[in-house]
Amino acid sequence: MTDRTEADLATLRTDVAQLRKDLAKITETLQDVARHGAQTVADKAKTAAQSVTHEIEERPLTAVLTAFSVGTILGMLFSRRS
What we know:
mainly alpha
């Protein structure tokens, strides 16, 4: 029984070592996915900011009136008292 237990322990050690390697690969893959996702979000945010900047430069009066209107509406909503 001792030989079988030792063989089982050796197999178990091998399996645990393989699991560690697999987990390391999974962790690396997840980090790559997270980096890629963060870069995609950053690129989309940059594109959106450039688009808004372009619209403000093209129509400054409309942008000011829109900002004023949104500010007034938000001010009225948040300043409501019972």
